[in-house]
C-alpha cells in the first residue's frame, strides 16, 4: 500500500450525493471515461446514468463501461443494447454463471464500483448504479458511501481501470489490440490529503485490502469503527480485532439489521458471541439496507470502498478501496457513522443474544456451517 500526498478526497454519502456528482462528472467528460460496476440496474437511476453515458458518447467521448455478468444480469438483458447502439463500448465480466455453482472461477466477480473521467477525476466506493429507494421499500435510502478523488492518486486508479479493460477485452474477443490510454492521469496536486488506492485481484493483490485492514487494526491505540454490509471475517481478522480489544481499544461494529441475503446474515450472527464476550460493541442498522464498506481507526485512518469483510470479497472478487490518512476526512466519516448509529441502529448486548429463541440461534449456527462448507467446496480453507 503506497500513500501519495497532495490529493483532494471528498466523502459522498448515499446515492443522494453520489449520483448527481457522477452525472455531472460524466457531462464534463471530453476524451475518455471508464465505469466499472457490479450492478447496473434498469431503473430510474440506471436509466439516468445510461442517458449521461450516451450523451458523452454522442459528443465523441470514448466511453468504456464494464459490468459484472451476474450482478448486472438485468442490464445485459435490457439496457446494454441501447447503450451499445449509442456508441458506448460495453464489456461484461464473466457473463456466464451456472446456477448454484460453487466452482471457484464462477464465484470470482467484478465487485468494484469505480469511475474515471478524462484521467482527471475518479469515484471509488460501494455504491452500485441502482436506485437507493427499492420498490416497496421504506422511506429511507440504502446506506452507503463513495469518494470523489483528484490528485496524484489518479495515477494508480487510471492504471487499474485501463489494465482491467485490456484484460477483459482480450478474454472476451481473444485478440490482442493496442487499446491505448486516451486520457493519461493528471497527477498534479489537488489538495493536502495522503491517500492510497488498494486493489484486490486474483494475481498480485490477492490479500491487499485485508492486509490494509489488519495493519490498521493491529496498530490501533484508541478506537476502531467498522461499518460493513456483509461481515463474515476469517479467523485471522477476528483474532486481530480480539487482540485490539484486549489492549483497551474501543471497537464498534455497525452491521446489517435488514438483510437482503438472509443466510449470510444468520451466519454473521453466529459470530456475535465471540465479539460481545470481548467487549466489542455491536449495532444492527434497521433504518434501511446497510450497504457500506467503511472504517475509521484512531481518528485519522479511514477506508471507503467496495470490499466487504467476508470470504467472497476478501478472497474471490475484484475490489477497490481508497485508504485515507487524514484527521478531517476520518472525522467526517466517523461523525456520519455515529449519526447513522443514533438515528437508525440498535445495540445488541450479550444478554440480548442469550435471550434469542433456541431455533433462531440454531439457524445461525447452521447458516455459519453451510457458509463455511461452501467456502471449502470453492477451494478456500484453513485460517480464512
Topology:
Blueprint: E1 4-13, H1 14-28, E2 32-37, H2 44-58, E3 62-68, H3 73-77, H4 79-85, E4 89-93, H5 104-107, E5 114-117, E6 121-125, E7 145-150, H6 154-173, E8 193-200, H7 208-219, E9 223-228, H8 235-246, E10 250-256, H9 262-269, H10 272-276, E11 281-285, E12 293-297, E13 301-305, H11 311-316, E14 319-325, H12 327-344, E15 345-348, H13 350-354, H14 358-377
Parallel strand pairs: 2-3, 3-4, 9-10, 10-11
Antiparallel strand pairs: 1-7, 1-8, 2-5, 5-6, 6-7, 8-14, 9-12, 11-15, 12-13, 13-14
Any overview of this molecule?
This protein has 384 residues and is α+β, with helices and mostly antiparallel strands. The protein is built from 14 helices and 15 strands. It folds into two domains: 4-192, Endonuclease, Chain A, CATH 3.30.870.10; 197-378, Endonuclease Chain A (Endonuclease, Chain A). The protein has helices spanning 14-28, 44-58, 73-77, 79-85, 104-107, 154-173, 208-219, 235-246, 262-269, 272-276, 311-316, 327-344, 350-354, 358-377; strands at 4-13, 32-37, 62-68, 89-93, 114-117, 121-125, 145-150, 193-200, 223-228, 250-256, 281-285, 293-297, 301-305, 319-325, 345-348. The radius of gyration is 20 Å and the shape is globular.
Provide a quick synopsis of the model:
This protein has helices spanning 14-28, 44-58, 73-77, 79-85, 104-107, 154-173, 208-219, 235-246, 262-269, 272-276, 311-316, 327-344, 350-354, 358-377; strands spanning 4-13, 32-37, 62-68, 89-93, 114-117, 121-125, 145-150, 193-200, 223-228, 250-256, 281-285, 293-297, 301-305, 319-325, 345-348. With 384 residues, it is α+β, with helices and mostly antiparallel strands.
